[in-house]
Design a protein that fits this description.
Blueprint lengths: L7 E4 L15 H14 L3 E5 L5 H10 L8 E7 L11 H8 L4 E7 L2 H8 L3 H17 L3 E7 L1 H7 L1 H14 L3 E6 L6 H12 L6 E5 L6 H10 L4 E4 L13 H11 L13 H11 L17 E2 L2 H9 L17 E2 L7 H10 L8 H16 L8 H11 L8 E11 L5 E11 L2 E9 L2 H13 L10 E9 L10 E8 L4 E8 L2 H26 L1
Parallel strand pairs: 1-2, 1-8, 2-3, 3-4, 4-5, 5-6, 6-7, 7-8, 9-10
Antiparallel strand pairs: 11-12, 12-13, 14-15, 15-16
Helix pairs in contact: 1-2, 1-11, 5-7, 6-7, 8-9, 12-13, 14-15, 15-17, 16-17
């Protein structure tokens, strides 16, 4: 490959990514992710290590029934264990049984691993690499060779490391991938070592970087600058220990910053969706602060920043968010200025009619509340109610006249909670009692029970998430807590917040806002009709 050759993308989310702590994928999960990677335009999808576990064997059987349009499925494994037992090696046999046109095998390129791990001499390890690759090629496979621990091996013994990749080249491998397996190499070292390798190897080179020093993306990009044209990584950087090189950062950097082309056309506007999809399938909470694809990547909080962004987004955004399928967000907090309020009002479809005194009053109110511990970054429904209240367009749909919560234990020692509420709706009192698994749960049941006669529409509202944060831990049991609640009616989602030294009171505030928000939205929809 020459300096202008397109970049070949190799995804190892389904293999190396699943070695990350807390990550487990079913066969169907892997199939679904593979189809999304194929649809996005990834060249190679490393599906797993056949022979190492039944799940990966099942994946390779099942993926044959899927029609992929852009990606090549690749099986992964190691070289044989003994140079004289190549044809009987169970790992190589399993690779052939996977029936993928391309296989990726790794071999030791650090003399420490050959000497101590395998107990092989330099010549024997070199022979092992050569014969393993040749065996696979003779059986009709194309081979990508991962030189495991190459950079550490080169720094320890350059002659040994180079001889191992030259053995892979002479055996007929199509690509030599240089691996920073321990993730401890600096970008400057990556650059200087690749220059030496290029003077000794004629095959296309690849990079496989781990993130133990928070340098996997940097090391990958410097490798590409140094002439590497095969890039390995995982979606969202998932992987063993600190993870792998993050393709969701690498790919936009290659296209938007470095002007590089990939071998397959990619629609970058879909990379944020791909990132979130993989997180969802892996049951991982998305990293909001992830570059390019994170929820906070284009979020602005400071009033001066927001004022500037509204004039020209380039002032505080390095790219247009839409290029990666993201969008600009403005947050409401104690750092907000009037620009934040105007932006959020516009985003919510609320006209302020140029009322500067209104926006000033809202900013003052928000800052006072945040000083008390409220946070509206993730509670935009509560913010909208405050805004509408300041505009004189909203007042609560109900008032609580009295409330009591009773905690008791049954004969088996299980805790029980009962909540009593007196709720006033347009002057009419509803008195209800409800139980629950805890005081907040009982309170939620009682509130819904009290209101359902007046507002039957709230039956669709479900509480999806409930978070409590202690704000001033040093105050002990007198500390303030902030409660954040996420709700849904099956179609829409919204979040509300409450703060108090009493967790029940804070929960009540957030619950109350949640139902008031739903009722207010219903009122608006009826008014439009």
């Amino acid at each position: 490959m020459n300096e202008n050759s397109p970049i070949e993308l190799f995804d190892t989310t389904l293999r190396d990514g699943t070695q990350g702590e807390g990550i487990s994928l079913s066969v169907d999960d892997k199939i679904h992710i593979a189809k999304h990677l194929d649809d996005f335009g990834i060249d190679f999808i490393e599906g797993g290590w056949p022979g190492s576990n039944p799940k990966d064997e099942a994946f390779f059987r099942k993926i044959k029934n899927e029609t992929l349009t852009t990606s090549t499925i690749c099986a992964f494994g190691s070289t044989a264990r003994f140079p004289k037992k190549i044809e009987s090696d169970t790992n190589l046999i399993a690779l052939l049984k996977a029936e993928t046109s391309t296989v990726c095998i790794f071999g030791k390129s650090w003399n420490l691993h050959a000497d101590v791990g395998l107990g092989l001499s330099k010549e024997a390890n070199e022979d092992l690499i050569y014969k393993s690759i040749q065996y696979l090629i003779n059986n009709g496979r194309k081979v990508i060779f991962d030189a495991e621990h190459f950079f550490d091996g080169y720094k320890d013994n350059p002659d040994f490391a180079l001889k191992m990749i030259l053995a892979a080249e002479s055996a007929g491998a199509q690509t030599i991938v240089l691996c920073d397996t321990n993730g401890g190499t600096l970008p400057s070292e990556i650059e200087s070592i690749i220059k030496v390798v290029k003077n000794n190897v004629n095959l296309p080179l690849g990079i496989h970087a781990h993130n133990d020093s928070e340098l996997a993306v940097s090391n990958t990009l410097i490798a590409v600058q140094s002439g590497v044209r095969h890039v390995q990584g995982t979606i969202n950087g998932v992987g063993e220990r600190c993870g792998n090189a993050n393709l969701c950062s690498i790919i936009p950097n290659l296209h938007l910053k470095m002007g590089k082309k990939t071998t397959k056309p990619l629609d970058l506007t879909r990379i944020t969706l791909l990132s979130h999809y993989v997180s969802e399938v892996m049951n991982l909470r998305p990293n909001h602060r992830a570059a390019y694809v994170g929820k906070s990547a284009f979020a602005h909080k400071g009033g001066i920043h927001v004022s500037a962004v509204l004039k020209d987004s380039k002032m505080y955004e390095h790219i247009e968010p839409e290029k990666v399928g993201a969008h600009q967000r403005v947050l409401i907090s104690e750092l907000s200025g009037q620009s934040n309020v105007r932006f959020k009002a516009k985003e919510l479809g609320i006209s302020l009619n140029g009322d500067k005194s209104l926006t000033k009053n809202v900013v003052t109110r928000i800052k006072d509340l945040e000083n008390e511990g409220y946070q509206f970054d993730g509670a935009e429904a509560s913010f909208e109610l405050i805004l509408k209240e300041q505009m004189g367009e909203f007042k609560p749909f109900f008032d609580v006249v009295d409330s009591r919560i009773h905690i008791s234990y049954d004969d088996d020692g299980h805790r029980m909670a009962d909540a009593m509420l007196k709720v006033s709706v347009d002057g009419e009192i509803e008195h209800t009692v409800a139980d629950g698994v805890g005081p907040v749960n009982a309170l939620s049941h009682a509130l819904r029970k009290a209101l359902i006669r007046f507002y039957p529409e709230i039956a669709t509202v479900k509480l999806l998430d409930y978070k409590v944060r202690v704000l001033n831990e040093s105050a002990g049991t007198e500390a303030k807590v902030r409660v954040l609640i996420e709700s849904s009616d099956g179609e829409n989602y919204w979040s509300t917040v409450g703060v108090s030294q009493n967790i029940i009171e804070a929960s009540w505030q957030a619950l109350s806002d949640s139902l008031n928000y739903k009722l207010y939205q219903l009122q608006l929809s009826k008014e439009k009709v």
